[in-house]
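Hello Y.,

Per our agreement to keep a running log of every chain we model this quarter, I'm adding this entry. I've kept the format consistent with earlier entries: sequence first, then predicted structure.
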Amino acid sequence: MMRERPRWLRTMGSVAEVAGRVLRHRWTRRIRVATVVVLAGVAGAAVAVMLFARADLNVGPFSAEMSVSPSVDGGTEIDIPPLGSLHLDSHRGPVHLRVALGSLDQSRTEALIDNPASISTAGDRAIDEVVSGVARLGLRTLGLAVLGGLILGALVFRDMRRTAAAGMTALLVTGGSFGLAAATLRPESISEPRYEGLLINAPAVVGDARRIADNYGRYSEQLQAILGNVSRVYSTISALPVYEPAGNTTRLLHVSDLHLNPSSWGLIRTVVQAFEIDAVIDTGDIVDWGSSAETSYVASIPSIQVPYIYVRGNHDSAAIQAAVKAQSNAIVLDDGLTEIDGLTIAGIGDPQFTPDKSEGNSATGDDAGPQLLTEAGQRLATTIRNSGKKVDIALVHDPAMAQPLSGVVPLVLSGHQHARSVSMLPAPTPVAPDPSASSSPAPLPSATATTPITTRIMVEGSTGGAGLRGLEDEEPTPLSLSVLYFDEKNDLKAYDDIRLGGTGESNVEMQRNVIGLEPDAVPVVPSVQPSQ
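Predicted structure for the entry above:
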């Protein structure tokens, strides 16, 4: 006689039988197939979007790439390699937009520089270009999502109807994601970016980006008229009877602290042509951060079409110096000499690299700064003495490097302070006699003894208007540069100080200074200033 199965076993058997019937039910099969179809469509769309959903576009002078990817939080990321990135809480939803700025396009950059008035319309065009790029990217992403869903659906099901359903699922999910992103769009997020990388310093360096953009737009509208005025002012000034450059006069243009301002190149080219400049002297800070991304800025140097003599500033890295040296008409001086039209010029780069240093910032190395600057000036003075040549001009970036050159050269050119000044360096301190030396009376000076050299230092303002930082105030920093005139004996005879700028004003100021007619400059000891 067989024993009856336990109750729990009979119950389990009943549950298994019911579960089997449920699983075999046609609606269960349909739900299971629908779930797989949805998963195939979503997975195929996600893979296709992550791999191929990108589009190239031009934003002003930049080449850029836009891409989208699945995300939980949404938002927009703008990469500016190698400086870092900024992140905007622009929208919600499962779509993340990434914009990667690439290199500057040389032809578009030169066109923008050659026509400064077009800067004022560049912002409007950039908005249209971005909107057009986003639209193209959206359509491309929808197409790729559908294609990805169809391909994965075909691989899984090998059934036309289910494959089409997977593609439709991809379309609905992707379109719904875009719809959610558009519905939660926050245009005001552009004023609330989160910075990463070197761009963490951006708010402190450039202030309110919207205010700077507004100021720059108003400022750049006047730049074209300002440049045109340079030629008219030159023709007037040159006719003054106090000084008229002779045919054998050497004309040098002194610029400094361009700080990545693209408008500087158009201004320099205009002055070079109008004043028949023989060479340009740049006393440093040609860029802002010294990054490899900024090396393309110096590619405009050959457009100047005259020798371009350069010494490194505290914002210029070794990579920037190398990029300048690679230009066909550039001459880099770093404790060395060169000769231009009979003038012998010596120069040395700034010994410090402090691109993120600002006023009030006690960065590491500040205590050693004055000593490093003085030692660099002493090193250049030693190089000049050992050369056995009469050096006419010495170039440094920071005026604090100039004092050791007093009595060594008649003229020192520098920048760094973003303010124009001319003064005489104090005479060098006489060396105390050696007590162990003979006490015989010193010989009288011979008739051939040379006259002691008095040294003039000319500190240039910022030819780039201090870059973006110069636009933080309501009135932007003016653009400053100077033309120096040397006679056949390599003596400085006169110089023109040119000053452009003033928001809302198309003005240019120019002052002719003739050596000997100007008031005697008071000797000033250059001091260490906060890094600009």
